[in-house]
Structure formats: structure tokens, C-alpha cells
Write a structure and sequence with these properties.
This protein has 180 residues and is mainly alpha-helical. It has one domain. Helices cover 87% and strands 0% of the residues. The chain has 3 helices and no strands. Helix 1 packs antiparallel against helix 2 and helix 1 packs antiparallel against helix 3. The radius of gyration is 41 Å and the shape is rod-shaped. The two termini are 19 Å apart.
Length: 180
């Protein structure tokens, strides 16, 4: 028959082993849960970045269309102005340098207006490229900032089991007061 000290020591060892196993299981489940949350956050962040990038692309297309429309309007206005000036000069019998100067001025204004439109368009493209870079930088920062899951601490659990084993060995090999 086993002595009560031996039974208590064996129960203590069994409880330590069960406790360590339960702790390892809980830590493993926590790590799995954290991985799932990280993956969900990562997917959501990438979807948001893609949507934001699509908005930047749409805005860029709209700016391109507006610039092309404004240049077409400038060209049309210049063509009408040059045509009217040429017709009026011919109808009134005016020729030479004054008509050429007026036509040159109209063509110069057309070029100046078109250059301003192109400059504004290029500036908006630069701003949109910066915005696009920020979309991806923000996404990367969010993803890189996700909490890393803590893996189970098997060494600590092994040491607890080992300590319980040593306690068991000590308690079962130490003579009881009745044996002395």
C-alpha cells in the first residue's frame, strides 16, 4: 500500500503535468486566434488600400479628361479668333504686319493657355502620385504594426514539469517520520 506522502506527491506531479499541458494548449489557441485576427486585419487593410488606389486612379482619369477638354476648348477658341481676325482683315482690306501680329498674338495666347493647362495637369498628377504612395505606405504601416502572436513557452512548461518531478522524487525518497 502506498503511503499518503507518495500519493500526494504523485497527485501533485500529475496536476503539474496537466496544468502545463493546459497552459500550452491555451497559449497555442491564443496564438492561432491572434494569427486569424492579423490575417483578417491584413486582408481588410489591403482591400481598403485597393479601394483608395482606385479612387486615385479615377481622379487621375478625371483630371486627364478635364485637361484634354480645356485644351480642346482653347484650340477651338483660338481657331475661331484666328478665323474671324483673318476674315475681318481681308474684308476690310487690311494686310501685312498688323494682321500677322494679331494672328501671332492669338496663337501665342493659345499656346500660353494650353501650357497652363498642361502645367496644372502635371501638378495634379504629381499630387496624385504622392497620394498613391501614401495609400501604400499607410497600408504597410498598418500591416507591419500588427501584433505578433506569442508562441507557447514549452521550455517554461518543461521546467515546471521537471520541478514537479524532482519534488515527487524528493517526497517519495525522504523517509517518513514513522520510519525513523
Amino acid at each position: 500500500m502506498c503511503e499518503p506522502v507518495t500519493i500526494i506527491a504523485a497527485a501533485s506531479l500529475a496536476m503539474s503535468v496537466a496544468s502545463a499541458a493546459a497552459a500550452a494548449d491555451a497559449q497555442s489557441k491564443n496564438a492561432d486566434y491572434q494569427n486569424q485576427m492579423n490575417e483578417r486585419q491584413r486582408a481588410q487593410t489591403l482591400a481598403t488600400a485597393a479601394a483608395n488606389n482606385n479612387q486615385v486612379n479615377l481622379q487621375q482619369q478625371q483630371n486627364r479628361d478635364l485637361a484634354a477638354q480645356k485644351i480642346a476648348e482653347n484650340n477651338r477658341s483660338a481657331a475661331l479668333g484666328i478665323g474671324r481676325s483673318t476674315a475681318m482683315g481681308g474684308a476690310s482690306g487690311v494686310e501685312g504686319n498688323s494682321v500677322d501680329a494679331l494672328l501671332g498674338d492669338l496663337a501665342g495666347q493659345q499656346t500660353k493657355f494650353n501650357n497652363a493647362v498642361e502645367t496644372n495637369y502635371q501638378t495634379s498628377i504629381s499630387a496624385l502620385e504622392n497620394q498613391r504612395a501614401n495609400v501604400y505606405a499607410d497600408a504597410a504601416t498598418t500591416i507591419n504594426g500588427l501584433k505578433s502572436p506569442a508562441q507557447p513557452d514549452y521550455i517554461s512548461m518543461g521546467l515546471k514539469i521537471g520541478q514537479a518531478g524532482l519534488t515527487y522524487a524528493k517526497d517519495t525518497t525522504t523517509p517518513s517520520p514513522r520510519e525513523l
